[in-house]
Amino acid sequence: MKYEKVMIALDGSEGSHQALQYGAELAKSTGSELTLAHVLAEPAYPLYGEGFTMAAYKGSVEQEVRDAAASEKGQGETLLEEARNTALHYTDHVKTKILEGDAAKSICDYAKVHDMDLIVMGSRGLSGLKRMVLGSVSQQVLSEAECPVLVTK
After folding, report:
1. Is 64 in contact with 126 (CB distance < 8 Å)?
2. What percent of the chain shows pLDDT beyond 70?
3. Alpha carbon distance 137, 123 (integer Å)
4. At residue 133, does pLDDT exceed 90?
5. Which residues on adjacent β-strands are paired with residue 98?
6. CA torsion through residues 111, 112, 117, 119, sign
7. Per residue, what are the HEC states of the chain?
């Protein structure tokens, strides 16, 4: 099978760095177009102590969420730019994309809409204990993606 469009999902973890290396090598050998994708974490609202009403803090809470989202987006853009610079050593056909929402669903939806031939991702990311209990993003992508998935170790 010829892989013409390959998506590499990146989260900044060691596993995603390995996925970048595998995906970039594959693109070099097959002439594939690479899409480097990063999913922004869903905004978390700060928790305040018992007895405080959200109405009293609505403006400051909204600002904290906006600031956190802007920081997250900036970190994602930096991650993708660094990954793009690495991938350009292998191929000239590199795109970057910031996605939002649930990581596995966002990756699978993007791959489907853009007719990706392959998704490459690391086996372990930066998801933490919550993902260990609920199942990793890579496991979810493996089960939900409509195209082949290469999970690197």
Report:
1. no
2. 79
3. 8
4. no
5. 38
6. positive
7. CCCCEEEEECCCCHHHHHHHHHHHHHHHHHCCEEEEEEEECCCCCCCCCCCCCHHHHHHHHHHHHHHHHHHHHHHHHHHHHHHHHHHCCCCCCEEEEEEECCHHHHHHHHHHHCCCCEEEEECCCCCCHHHHHHCCHHHHHHHHCCCCEEEEC
pLDDT mean over 60-78: 78
Q: Are 32 and 43 in contact (CB under 8 A)?
A: no
Span 83-93, pLDDT tens digits: 999 999 999 99
User: Which token pair is 54?
Assistant: 């959200």
Strand pairing partners for 8?
36, 120
Report the mean per-residue pLDDT for the chain.
85
Q: What is the mean pLDDT of residues 18-31?
A: 96
